[in-house]
């Protein structure tokens, strides 16, 4: 791939760290004009347009959409990457309504609202790609680690499939990418918390987590850049016949066909 997205306008939510940052950087290298959202402005925003926004707040989507359309007049690629597994460990009994609501808002409703705000401009131009960053946890939930997160991401997958069917006739493509365990700052924070709660080392915490998930056939976590490579390929004309698909990138972790 070489400048395959030159001139395209792309939005990456949660794009200042981890997978989102890698996606934004890859989109820039492929020639896209990139808009990144996050709650906090990073020190270096060279190469992209930054919009501060908390996507757990319903009004944020309209504010983001208005700024993009006012400045650029259109949107070609939406990568709904914002999300996190913020709930406490321990299963149903320790999860409050507030835990469920927080996870649902960030991992599902943020994407629903962003899409709703920007889809009219995409349908008007009869082109566009929407990619949801879901999770392998949607198809391999771990009851004491990912219960509400898995439920929200599974709902995101179903929503993505439905939306793909609805907008295909308008020339739009909609997909989901489902990473497994990825070496990101959020994963590091999670492992540190797990290690502290269990009074074990980081290496032991990683072994505990991978054992719960069924171990990693490739023997390592993914790098954020590996996820970014797939996302940018799917956003490109080279994937023009791919839509409505949930693309697993979990290093062989999911044991089913």
Automatic annotation (TrEMBL):
It comes from the Bacteria. SUPFAM superfamilies: NAD(P)-binding Rossmann-fold domains. The keyword Transmembrane does not apply. GO terms for molecular function: oxidoreductase activity, acting on the CH-OH group of donors, NAD or NADP as acceptor. Pfam families: adh_short_C2. Keywords: Oxidoreductase. The keyword Ion transport does not apply. Belongs to the short-chain dehydrogenases/reductases (SDR) family. NCBIfam families: PRK06523.1. This is NAD(P)-dependent dehydrogenase (Short-subunit alcohol dehydrogenase family).
């Amino acid at each position: 791939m070489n400048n395959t997205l030159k001139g395209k306008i792309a939005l990456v939510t949660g794009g200042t760290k981890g997978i989102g940052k890698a996606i934004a950087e890859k989109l820039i290298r492929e020639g896209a004009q990139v808009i990144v959202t996050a709650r906090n402005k990073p020190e270096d925003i060279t190469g992209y347009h930054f919009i501060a926004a908390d996507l757990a707040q319903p009004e944020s989507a309209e504010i983001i959409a208005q700024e993009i359309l006012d400045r650029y007049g259109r949107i070609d690629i939406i990568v709904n990457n914002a999300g996190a597994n913020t709930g406490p460990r321990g299963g149903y009994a320790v999860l409050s309504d507030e835990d469920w609501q927080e996870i649902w808002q960030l991992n599902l409703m943020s994407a629903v609202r962003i899409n709703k705000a920007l889809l009219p401009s995409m349908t008007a131009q009869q082109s566009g790609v929407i990619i949801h960053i879901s999770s392998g946890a949607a198809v391999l939930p771990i009851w004491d680690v990912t219960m509400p997160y898995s439920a929200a991401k599974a709902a995101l997958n179903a929503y993505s499939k439905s939306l793909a069917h609805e907008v295909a006739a308008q020339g739009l493509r909609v997909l989901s990418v489902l990473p497994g365990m990825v070496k990101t700052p959020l994963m590091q924070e999670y492992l540190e918390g797990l290690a502290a709660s269990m009074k074990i080392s980081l290496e032991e915490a990683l072994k505990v987590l991978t054992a719960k998930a069924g171990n990693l056939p490739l023997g390592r976590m993914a790098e954020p850049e590996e996820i970014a490579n797939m996302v940018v390929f799917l956003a490109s004309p080279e994937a023009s016949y791919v839509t409505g698909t949930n693309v697993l990138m979990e290093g062989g972790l999911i044991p089913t066909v």
